[in-house]
Amino acid sequence: MDVLDEPVLASLRGRHAHLARWCGTAATYLPGVTTFAAVAEPGPAAWDDLARLLGSGALADMFSSEAVPPPGWEPVFALEARQLIGPAEPAPVGPGADVVELGAADVPAMLDLVARTEPGPFWPRTRELGTYLGIHEDGALVAMAGERLRPPGWTEISAVCTAPGARGRGHAARLVRTLAGRIAARGERAFLHVTDTNTAALGLYERLGFRTRRPVTFRGHRVP
Fold first, then answer.
1. Residues forming a β-bridge with 193
2. pTM of this prediction?
3. What is the Cα–Cα distance from 9 to 106, expressed in whole angstroms?
4. Closest listed residue to residue 176, CA positions, set 81, 90, 100
5. β-pairing, 154-162 with 189-195?
6. Cα–Cα distance for residue pair 215/79, rounded to 1 Å
7. pLDDT per residue as tens, the chain (224 positions)
8. In a 3-state reduction of DSSP, which class is residue 106?
9. DSSP string, 170-218
10. Measured in Å, how far apart are the chain's first and last C-alpha atoms?
């Protein structure tokens, strides 16, 4: 298995094992971290494990997995997207706004920024997945980005967002470049996901040297 084909499962088996919940061959993250789930083996038994793990009526957020549930699992959403991989040697970060690491005390501000910008799923414990960086203006958090899925050899950049009043100043580009540089410095490579409709973000990532690896579909199903 190429770890980028099943990044949730690869992360839960590896560097996110301490944040994982398992039932048989199914896994998901601890509450408040993220809703992503995975099945380690195809077939009805794995989906039965996932149903027991999540509970009846819960959302099975399968991220980019191509695994198909058995009959009775109600489709909730399907979003077309792309998986991009970053350059092997990211460009150096030039001078600009100060970039700081965000910690537990910053979570309320991070959640507020996410609520105003909607970059994708982000929960009270999501920052535990990796390093999150931010930029402040006049004491307020106006931009952030961080690390999410972490399959072996790779780290996903996610939650890239900028407050409406602070856009056009290069904050997102600086944060992504900084994260990609840190990831490369530890011998890994950055990757990310972007929905097909988010053309502005796709254009930014391509200018930063990211290239499409494959199309993906984000899927969610309701547990019967």
1. 83
2. 0.95
3. 28
4. 90
5. parallel
6. 11
7. 599 999 999 999 999 999 999 999 999 999 999 999 999 988 999 999 999 999 999 999 999 999 999 999 999 999 999 999 999 999 888 767 799 999 999 999 999 999 999 999 999 999 999 999 999 999 999 999 999 999 999 999 999 999 999 999 999 999 999 999 999 999 999 999 999 999 999 999 999 999 999 999 999 999 99
8. helix
9. SHHHHHHHHHHHHHHHTT-EEEEEEETT-HHHHHHHHHTT-EEEEEEEE
10. 29
Residue 134 · residue 100 · CB < 8 Å: yes
Rg (CA), the chain: 17
Buried b vs exposed e over 182-205: b needs ≥16 C-beta within 10 Å? bbbeeebbbbbbbeeebeebbebb
Span 4-22, pLDDT tens digits: 999 999 999 999 999 999 9
For residue 149 the two structure tokens come to: 């899925």
CA neighbor of 211 nearest in space, from 86, 67, 76, 50: 86
Strand order, beta sheet including 59-63: 59-63, 211-222, 74-85, 189-195, 154-162, 140-147, 132-137, 100-101
The residue type found at 163 is: A
Q: What angle do CA 214, 151, 203 make, to 5 degrees?
A: 40
Provide long-range contacts, Cβ within 8 A and 24+ apart, for 109-116: 109/140, 109/141, 110/134, 110/141, 110/144, 112/141, 113/141, 113/142, 113/143, 113/144, 113/161, 113/163, 114/159, 114/161, 116/163, 116/164
Token match 């290069």: residue? Answer: 170
